[in-house]
């Protein structure tokens, strides 16, 4: 047994102890449904740690996420459905099957070749071509920007795509014009629809230039928080309350934060 095998076995044993007789009351009460929010929360904490670029935080958050996977696997094991060994073995087998250019005799010279083969293999595993949409396999629960990007990726793989980034930018400008036009209408439904179209076109240009829209927006949010807190700190140092400051005063501190 390798050190990795032993440590994983130790984690599974801890989980069984928590769920077993004399274990933790809270852990014993949990179900797959109740664990879902924690799984999502831990996933986002991993992303946040990656954005911060701190390896010790990434390691810790990955451990928390792994614990949720072991937790869900233990719940399934108790119901006689599957165990953590099945999860690990299943993903290992899938990766071997999905990479015949590495583990077999197939050839894939580019990343595009790999992704096209991947999609063909997935369709074959799910029942063969013609029985599923090219857009299937994108979870509805994904954040909207990421789901839009994944759907656009899938459409692109069957040839439904623009040829050049300039064409996508023309679409962005078109959607922006249409959004401006509906603003005058004061029609909530039309404004929502056109704003959605604008977001979708922005995701498309992000995809064309190789930018993950979720990452881009998350980093901008972090930047906004950092700068706003700078305004709060400067106001506090001056003995001022933000609510009493003018917009011009706050703008001046904002510009100061941008240079910090």
**Cα gyration radius (Å):** 24 Å
State mean pLDDT (0 to 100 scale).
93
- The CATH homologous superfamily of the domain at 3-96 corresponds to MazG-like
The top-level CATH class of the domain at 3-96 is Mainly Alpha
Beta strand count = 0
* Termini gap: 52 Å
Ranges where pLDDT stays below 50 over 5 or more residues in a row are: none
How is the CATH topology of the domain at 3-96 named? Answer: Helix Hairpins
Short key terms for the protein model shown above:
260 residues; mainly alpha; Helix Hairpins; 12 helices; extended
Describe the structure.
With 260 residues, the protein is mainly α. Among the domains are: 3-96, Orthogonal Bundle (Helix Hairpins); 215-259. The protein is built from twelve helices and no strands. Helix 3 runs antiparallel to helix 4 (55-78). The model has no long low-confidence stretch (mean pLDDT 93).
What's the SSE blueprint?
Layout: H1 3-19, H2 25-29, H3 32-52, H4 55-78, H5 84-98, H6 100-103, H7 111-125, H8 144-157, H9 165-183, H10 188-208, H11 213-237, H12 247-259
Helix pairs in contact: 1-4, 3-4, 8-10, 9-10, 11-12
Q: What's this entry about, in short?
A:
With 260 residues, the protein is mainly α. 74% of the residues lie in helices and 0% in strands.
